[in-house]
């Protein structure tokens, strides 16, 4: 007698992927997440491929994972996917101290963040 299956949080035409403990501040990660919000998946992958931000590689991996989840787990068509949501959350912050002059100390904060990407299948519009 196991647990009952939990109801899905997402709609039937959505899939998501979560990356936790990314070693970047949420503010910097949000700049990259803004690049892909609301775009088609192919366009978002191309933008991340040529982005100069270091964290873009991890965002791309998370997006590819969301696409794979949509294709393999939920039988969605990859060509009709858009990035419905890309939201960033705060993780833990490691605190370090660096000695400064005159016996003082400088505080160094090393923040982590979480990234959640939700992709949604939209019906292809017929071009007239």
TrEMBL record:
The keyword Iron does not apply. GO terms for molecular function: rRNA binding; structural constituent of ribosome. InterPro entries: Ribosomal_uL22, Ribosomal_uL22_bac/chlpt-type, Ribosomal_uL22_bac/org-type, Ribosomal_uL22_CS, Ribosomal_uL22_sf. It holds the Pfam family Ribosomal_L22. One of its GO terms (cellular component) is cytosolic large ribosomal subunit. GO terms for biological process: translation. PROSITE patterns: RIBOSOMAL_L22 (PS00464). Keywords: Ribonucleoprotein, Ribosomal protein, RNA-binding, rRNA-binding. Belongs to the universal ribosomal protein uL22 family. The globular domain of the protein is located near the polypeptide exit tunnel on the outside of the subunit, while an extended beta-hairpin is found that lines the wall of the exit tunnel in the center of the 70S ribosome. Part of the 50S ribosomal subunit. This is Large ribosomal subunit protein uL22. It comes from Pseudolabrys taiwanensis. The gene is rplV.
């Amino acid at each position: 007698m196991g647990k009952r299956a939990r109801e899905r949080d997402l709609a039937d035409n959505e899939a998501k992927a979560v990356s936790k403990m990314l070693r970047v501040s949420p503010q910097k990660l949000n700049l990259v997440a803004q690049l892909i919000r609301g775009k088609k998946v192919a366009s978002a992958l191309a933008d991340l491929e040529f982005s100069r931000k270091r964290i873009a590689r991890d965002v791309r991996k998370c997006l590819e994972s969301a696409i794979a989840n949509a294709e393999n787990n939920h039988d969605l068509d990859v060509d009709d996917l858009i990035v419905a949501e890309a939201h960033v959350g705060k993780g833990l912050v490691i605190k370090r101290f660096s000695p400064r002059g005159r016996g003082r100390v400088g505080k160094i904060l090393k923040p982590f963040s979480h990234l959640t990407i939700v992709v949604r299948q939209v019906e292809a519009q017929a071009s007239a």
